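Lab notebook, bench 4. The sequencing result for the construct came back, and we need a structural model before the next group meeting so we can plan mutations. Quick request posted to the team channel:

Model the 3D structure of this chain.
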Amino acid sequence: MLTKENYTKYVKILQEELVPAMGCTEPISIAYATAKARAVLADTPISAKVEVSGNIVKNAKSVTVPHTGGMRGIKSAFAAGLVAGNADAELEVISNVSEEQIAEIQKAKDEFDVEVVTPENARVFDIGVTLRSKAHTAYVRITNAHTNIACIKRDGETLYENLPQETERTDRSILNVEDIIAFADEVRPEDVKEVLDRQIAYNMAIAEEGLKNNYGANVGKVLLRSYQPDIKITAKAYAAAASDARMNGCELPVVINSGSGNQGITASVPVIVYARGMHCSTEKLYRALCVSNLVTVHLKDGIGALSAYCGVVSAGAGAACGVAYLLGGRKKEISHALVNALAIDSGIICDGAKASCAAKIATAVESGLLGLNMYYNGNQFFAGDGIVKKGVENTIKSVSRLAQDGMRETDKEIIRIMLEVD
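Done. Here's the predicted structure in token form:
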């Protein structure tokens, strides 16, 4: 049963998770740490050391950093934060970059003395940036989440370490499918309007940009050109097109979910497309987006921020739950759609942020919608079918185990393969 206290917490979780970010969030986090270190240094930097975990390497290696003239990789993200970063803007740290600064970023990437290393004892999500001037040093470390600064030092003196974040993170363990649906039924639109209006506006704008212009492998365009358009194809195409644009340098922001822009896109865009195609009211769309976003957060909470398990699988399943809600489904229908979706494509690997993420989004949305349609056609997967357990929450726990424990060595091997010289 959803209590008044948990109602308030659910609203806070949406506010904490659905925040704007420009560009892929791992390189943007590098830029953020760099901008913060530059502000702490308060002097002209002459050299630097960037320490990143293997998972950060994986997600920053191949993706285009916005406002850099098409540059990719860790050094590009570092250079952008060094030259043009505004640490106060957090995940929009490089949202305001002039043409002159783009040239400076390119020069810094090529000429600035920066060493990039991967410490053996790094956490899964770990970024450390040391800046040096002639007289001073500054160090900033981010761990566990994209804006979670764990340590700040200047000239070896600790200025900040292991202190609570300014806004305490709401406990995600209160999330469960039954209460998520109850929250969606009960939520006052004015409590979620601001955060969801922004998600709708930002994520649909980048989807339309991805369909309008050429980005990456143009997965969204390929879907619309290759198949007879219907609402399912349109939902997949718009979600994929948003990722086409985002992974390949588009300078529009997205609203993220669970620290990921691709997950934010996948959890929202298909639901918005379905709501518009079904001529649903804005209020009903808000309620469905509460379902899709919170189910995605619930799934990702047990998996962790970064792993070998592709995060858009969770978001695609979440989107299917949102569509089920639009169709009148409640706990029974939504739970079965979710279990079916997780049974279909759990195990898609995350091999970093890059153009092919758009195709994985299309696959995840397809699996989610297939899982939904299976149930409405009287078919489902049962406990004992692979990792499926009796009850939706037990199946979610199975997926968490698979992603966090079972795929730990897979993650290491993916990183080793990605770091091999071609």
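The chain has a mean pLDDT of 92.
Will bring this to the meeting.
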